[in-house]
Amino acid sequence: MNNTSLSGQDQNRILSIDFFRGFTMFMLIGEFSGFFSTMVNPSFDGTIISTIGRQLHHVDWIGLHFWDLIQPFFMFIVGVAMPFSMTRRWNRGDSWNKTFRHALIRSFLLLFLGWALYCIGPGKITFHFTNVLAQLSVTYLIAFLVMRKAVKWQLLVSFLMIIISDLLYRFWSVEGFNQPFTPDQNFGSWFDLALTGSLAGGHWVAFNAIPTTAHTIWGVIAGMILMNDWKPRKKIRIMAIAGIIGVILGYSMNSYIPIIKHICTSSFVIVSGGWCLIALAISYLLIDVLNWKKIALFFAIVGMNPLFIYLFAHTGGNEWLGTIAKPFINAIFGAFNQLTIQMALTLTVWAMMWGICYFLYKRKVFIRL
From its phi and psi, is residue 146 left (phi > 0), alpha (psi between -120 and 50) or beta? Predict the structure, then answer.
């Protein structure tokens, strides 16, 4: 999570990276605000609001909604930024060993923070590692270890992780955990019980960090494409074609290997990776080629402090903001029904979280690991 400002000091900065990261974080704080939950209220059944709202929630098990792409987007864009940040370090004279130590420390801190978030709710030590920070601690370190290898070797490692994961799910023979595509009865569930002694809930599994490492490695490769001195059209074409191939391949695999985000099946990793590449190609076209820079700034403001806003929301900051805003929202919208009041409140909380990021941005405060 390399966070810097959109100042004029770096004229060659690729703003689409800031936009992509910022858009992803903006959607995450939208979820934390509670606004997406109001969109699936039964009062909206059969309307466009309900249709959009369902896309902003995870599929129960098999299938793919837009919201299932947010975590891959996050893993992917971290990878995209890695060649830029590491190349700057190497160019200024940092050795590989020094940057490796930095990556190792960052991974440990991400793992610690990801684990610690699970202890806050129950108020006791709880060992679970399924949230995005804990998963990123693994994908980031592995992507770093292979990023100086040729692209063909990076691709080989990424697909090996997908294939090994798929084989483990298919051929794991422990009774009760040998049904690869059944919730809580698969290898990932067995792994969680062996690792932590319990299941994380919601059918999520910690082992997802292994197959989803492909997203971060593919992000590194995409970052290298953006760093290249090729013409923008060529960069867009390569990412778009690769993305389209991934989407087609992933969906075509669904009949044999169901698309399941909860356990990151190979079909899910490939189809979501394809969408990541397509989204980055579109972002690069709009922001860096067509110069839609005002849009980039609005979202990038959130993406400049992703760790802070993620932890702030996860530790109840959104509820605190809701408590502050509620009396004013009730006073302004008191004549409306409860659903309207709730939508106004959650939208206000969403805006307040963006406002906190803007406050930090204006004061050049960027919280990093």
Answer: alpha
281-310 tens-digit pLDDT: 999 999 999 998 888 899 999 989 999 999
In this prediction, residue 121 carries a pLDDT of: 67
The position carrying tokens 């830029």 is 84
For residues 44 and 50, the answer to whether their CB atoms sit within 8 Å is yes
Structure-token match 């299938």, residue found: 63
DSSP character string of 306-321: HHHHHHHHHTTHHHHH
Distance CA 151, CA 80 (A): 14
Q: What are phi and psi of 132, to 5 degrees?
A: -65, -35
Report CA-CA distances (Å) from 81 to 33, 44, 48: 27, 39, 35
- In the chain, domain spans: 35-291
DSSP β-bridge partners for residue 62: 260
Bridge partners of residue 284, in order along the sequence: none
**Amino acid identity for residue 193 in this structure:** L
Report which of 366, 347, 369, 344 is spatially closest to residue 357, judged by C-alpha positions: 366
User: Does residue 151 surpass a pLDDT of 70?
Assistant: yes
CA 59 centroid distance within chain: 16
Distance separating alpha carbons of residues 40 and 305, to the nearest angstrom: 29
Tens of pLDDT along 51-110?
A: 999 999 999 999 999 999 999 999 999 999 999 999 999 999 999 999 999 999 999 999
Q: Which pLDDT score, from 0 to 100, does residue 123 have?
A: 67
pTM: 0.93
Question: Residues near 212 by Cβ (< 8 Å), separated by ≥ 6?
Answer: 71, 72, 75, 135, 139, 264, 269
Token pair of 355, please?
């406002």
Look at the block and give the residue holding tokens 């060993």: 97
SS3 content of the chain, % helix, strand, coil (to 5): 70, 0, 30
User: Tens of pLDDT along 207-224?
Assistant: 999 999 999 999 999 999
Residue 2 is encoded by which pair of tokens? 């390399």
Q: What is the pLDDT of residue 328?
A: 95
pLDDT at 13: 75
Q: What average pLDDT does the segment 202-209 reach? A: 95
- Using pLDDT thresholds of 50, 70 and 90, give the confidence band for residue 117: confident
d(CA 114, CA 108): 10
